[in-house]
Amino acid sequence: MALASAHLRIARSTNNLEALLPFYRDGLGFEVVGRFADHEGFDGIMLRLKSVGYHLEFTQTVHHDAGRAPTQDNLLVFYLPDASAFAKAVKQMEQAGFPAVASFNPYWDHCGKTFEDPDGYRVVLAHMASPV
What we know:
Blueprint: E1 8-13, H1 17-27, E2 31-39, E3 42-48, E4 54-60, E5 75-79, H2 83-95, H3 106-111, E6 112-116, E7 122-126
Parallel strand pairs: 1-4, 5-7
Antiparallel strand pairs: 2-3, 3-4, 6-7
């Protein structure tokens, strides 16, 4: 299948790019790989982790109110089976000023920690191997 070799971009809008940046850069360790301003009315930032086949893109425009996450169960889940890698990731989030929050689905509280970005979208650091 052609998609198996594709690079994936996960994109969403926000009302405040600068408020999101510390969460993903300082807390989760993403690096800024691109920015654009006033591209047909949109500003944006692209972030990635080294050596992965995806990146995140956040955009904002004065012509649209992005609002908050539609539910508390809109998640990005990162599986970290190694105990030291999991502990380091949690500590980095906390030191960056992002405390864990209670998960909407209690399953995630049993196997990891959940963090909420400034837009209400959530990231789970799961201390387990990926199920697939």
